[in-house]
Structures are given as structure tokens and as C-alpha cells.
Amino acid sequence: MKRIVLFLATNLAVMLVLSVVVHLVGADRWLYANGLNVQQLLIFAAIFGMGGAFISLAMSKSIAKWTTGARVIDQPQSSAEAWLLQTVQRLARSANIGMPEVAIYDGPEMNAFATGMSKNKALVAVSSGLLHSMNQDEVEAVLGHEISHVANGDMVTLTLIQGVLNTFVIFLARVVGYVVDNALRGGRDDNRGGAGIGYFFTVMVLEMLFGILASMIVAWFSRYREYRADAGGAHLAGKRKMISALQRLGAAHPSTLPQQMSAFGINGGGVRQLFASHPPIEQRIARLQAAA
Length: 292
Prior knowledge:
Layout: H1 2-24, H2 27-31, H3 38-68, E1 71-72, H4 79-94, E2 101-105, E3 112-116, E4 122-127, H5 128-133, H6 136-151, H7 154-184, H8 197-237, H9 239-252, H10 270-274, H11 281-290
């Protein structure tokens, strides 16, 4: 979950910063110097949209380390750390990817994430809570799950999707901003080309709102990829171990609502479910149990 949350938050921040820079250097004024040119605007949006997504991906490892306080294991300081490095190395070799950086961060929750720009330059981090709460078989399955994310190229795939969505966010926000600014000026042609104060604030607000809606689409795709990572974890570590790890996670976060009502609860469904990066634990376990 941290992987997706950090990526989405970084992407949103990068896009807002790029929008401010574009406005300050006068790019929007130049863009609308001769009125609204849809083709020119779409090219501009694609360059900045895809660029913003890949900037977010390039920053993902550094942001993850900084925000979680993760400590990369260069030299194991205990038998547990040595086992962790050896297990990740074995799983990475089985998945045919380069050895990722391995890190531990302090946190009571059972969690882990993988991020990075490529399959051979990734980061796999686990929480201290996960290491203390799970046995080695379950930790191995979680590591297999994260290694599968890397092997499947999930971060790059999500970045491409985010880039396309960024393109439409930038494009639509500026089209609406142009219309709003012209309306505020009463249709007068004062050579500002849709780059007045009304335009600027409209674009900033709409990029934020559209960006949040785009995050829902990224979260939906992330939920779909979680099933693939579960299957990959089961392949690398063993189906029994993967199911056991998910059951341990499910026991740590039990639902407080009856099954019939869970879809209407804050935690189990509703609006919050649209932003969830992972499917419900019960569905993930059922999918694995049904798999051959």
C-alpha cells in the first residue's frame, strides 16, 4: 500500500509544481497567444503529463526511504538480517531480476513494499512489525509477493497509466481554465490569451480534483495487479505460505462489520474502496485457493 500511496502523492505534488513553473515562465501565455489550439495543447499536455509521471517514478526510491526512514542493509547486523538478504537474493534469482536493495523501516504494522525505476534497480522494504509478527515462511511469501511486483514491471506499468491520465488532467484543466478566464474577461481580447488570474486558479483547482479522480483509476489497476503479485508470491515461495501470510494479515485487521454490511462500511467499501490500492484480504485468499 505504501508503494502506491507514495507514488500517487509524489505524482500529484510534481504535477502541481510543474503547473506553477509553467505559469511563472509564461508557457501558458505562449500556448494561448493565438487562441485555443487543441492539437498544440494536447502535445504540451502529453510531454508534461508523461514527464511528470516518470519524474515521480525516478524519485520513488528516494522518497520511500526518506518518508519511511528505511535503513538499507549493506552489511547484516544480525542473523535475521542475513536471512532476509539471502531470501531476497534467492527469490530475485528465481524471478530472473537483479538483486534489489533490501531495507527495514520501523513500524508496528505488518507491511512491505517494492519500488524502483526498473526490474534490476529496485528497492524491497519490510517493516519491523512484519518481521516480528510473522514466521519465516510467511515473511518469505510476502517477499515473493513484492519481488513479483518488480518482476511484473508493475511500477513502470502504473507510471505509464499515470502518465496518460496526467495528460488528460493537464489538457482538460487548461481547456476549462481557458473558457473560465474568457468568461471572466467578458470575451474581451486583451492579448492575455487565456492566461489570466481566473485561468491560473481554475487550472490549479481542476488539476487537483482531476488528479484525485485519476488516482481512483490507478488504484483500480493496482488492485488488479495485486492478484498477479499474490500468484507470483505463491509460485516463488509456495501457495501454502502465501495463503498463510494473507491470513495473518487478515487476522491483524479484522472487519468489524457483518459480511452483508461490509460493502456499506467506511473500511469495507463505499467511497474509500475506490481509492484502495489492494483488494480485500478475503478475496485474495479465495483467488489463491481456487487457483490450480
